[in-house]
Predict the 3D structure of the following.
Amino acid sequence: MTEKLSFTLIENSFCFLESAIKYSKEKERRDWKYAILNLANALELMMKAVLEKEHWSLVFESIDSASREKIIKGNFQSVNFETSINRLENIVNFKLSARDLTYLKKIRDIRNKITHFSFEINIEETKSIVARGLGVFIKLYKKIDTYKNADDILHFINSELIEFEKYVKLRLAEIKDDLRASKRPDKIFHSCPLCLQNTIIINTNFDELFCKFCGAEFSYNDVANYSEGNGGSCPECENGRLAFVVYNSEEGEFICTKCGFKSDYSYNVQCTSCQNTYWDENGNDDYLCESCYKSNYD
């Protein structure tokens, strides 16, 4: 008799999670690559498991094409990341926090980069990301909580999460005094775009941003590019850049990643004469910077 390997969505998700934890404990640096890849797969499958519990058709990207036969054969396009998030919120009524969504998107982006491009992994950053990912996995699993060994599984995941959190807390304790003594940007930019810890400071020696947790360095422009929109140079300080920060689906503002200057709009425009960018809240029709305006009209 031919042996078969069979997993439910939940079982398959846990299989990847266990592999992620296993690789995170290995000594070789390259094993962290597999830790992230497996964690990403575990989270994606657990999101699908939550959708499947609501209704099996929700695991199809196009619900109109859903059929039991396609599920059995595995011949269909499953729901993608963005659609999964939308259905979790709008159909299942399971709303992930803004931070949880940030963690999920971060893990997805790292997985995509590893899978499709060259990549570089910061080990400190990765440890932080795995800890965040395990926390989100627990929240997703609790939405289902029908597995026969639910208590044992949650105990296992929580035990692993505690180990990662111990590391994170120890690292944060080590840099606590340095953080307090350091100059920091506006609080909206305290979170590192890579490790997601609130450990960004201003490195005054090089006039750039630096993460005390994972050691990543960022120009002010880099951080603006991580936002919802780069608004160009700050009119109040040298080298600062305006990042568009969204507070909800309707409101947002531009904030300087260096000095914290705020504006509802970016008034940066390009001078039609010298091509340099300048700040123009009055919106003159000539689009000339002050220097060129004086040269033309004085």
About this structure: The CA atoms of residues 111 and 217 lie 21 Å apart. The chain has a mean pLDDT of 84. Residues 182-266 form one domain.
